[in-house]
Amino acid sequence: MRNKFEEQLEKLHVEMIQMGALCEDAISAAAEALIHSDAALAAAAEEAEREIDQKEREVENLCLKLLLQQQPVARDLREISAALKMISDLERIGDQAADIAEMTSYVHLPQGRSSHIADMARAVINMVTDSVDSFVKRDLQLARQVCAADDRVDDLFIQVRRELVELIAADASYGEQGLDLLMVAKYLERIGDHATNVAEWVEYSITGVHPSNN
To answer: PhoU domain spans which residues (predicted)?
Structure first.
């Protein structure tokens, strides 16, 4: 019975890695689509989001099967319940990447102003990767590093917002575009928040205590 459980738990880890990779693909494609005004990349981000939705259903079914059929002990129960929470955040990450992709047809970065948006995208991709890796490897330190990395994303958001305010102040005609770009930055900031949520559930699965309760 335990061997069967271990096999299914390993399958859960594989599915979580695949879902995390799809999130990375969606964010990367959406950011590149925005920077380069590339409709094909925007479509790729939206396709990745649909695959993320499907993966969420598959992982949820696997978790429920583990709970109902295998009667896991305390630590295993925490790991499975944490995975159920995590996939909700990963699904939201896919949604927000798709939201960015949808904006690429009418939002254009001003010349020389793409660096901080691109930096935010790279930062949140790393956070998503590390949050899922920390779950699979049961790496508490890595999970906590993800939470700390969110401060960097918040700082980048503030920089983007400041630059856009300055840009609009200098040229009022850029107001609508500036607000749209601020929304893109906000989506990226929210992705960082969701990756942090994932990492916090990893900490719960390992320690039995959610960081919000400390």
So the answer is: 17-103, 117-202
Rounded Cα distance between 8 and 10, Å, is 5
CA angle centred on 199, ends 197 and 205, rounded to 5°: 105
d(CA 16, CA 11): 9
Per the structure, the complete domain to which residue 125 belongs is given by: 2-213
Mean pLDDT across 95-111? 88
Would the CA dihedral through 57, 21, 42, 125 be positive or negative?
Answer: positive
User: What CATH number has the domain bearing residue 42?
Assistant: 1.20.58.220
Per 3-state DSSP, the chain is made up of helix, strand and coil in percentages (nearest 5) of 90, 0, 10
pLDDT at 53 over 80: yes
* Contact between 90 and 56 (Cβ < 8 Å): yes
What pLDDT band is residue 2 in, cutting at 50, 70 and 90?
A: low
Nearest of 43, 143, 147, 53 to residue 92 by alpha carbon: 53
pLDDT band at 1 (very low <50, low <70, confident <90, very high): low
Q: Identify the DSSP state of 110.
A: P
Cβ atoms within 10 A of the Cβ of 57, count? 11
pLDDT value for 214? 65
Number of domains into which the chain is organized: 1
What SS3 class is residue 111?
coil
* 3 half-sphere exposure, CB direction, 13 A CA radius: 0
pLDDT value at residue 41: 96
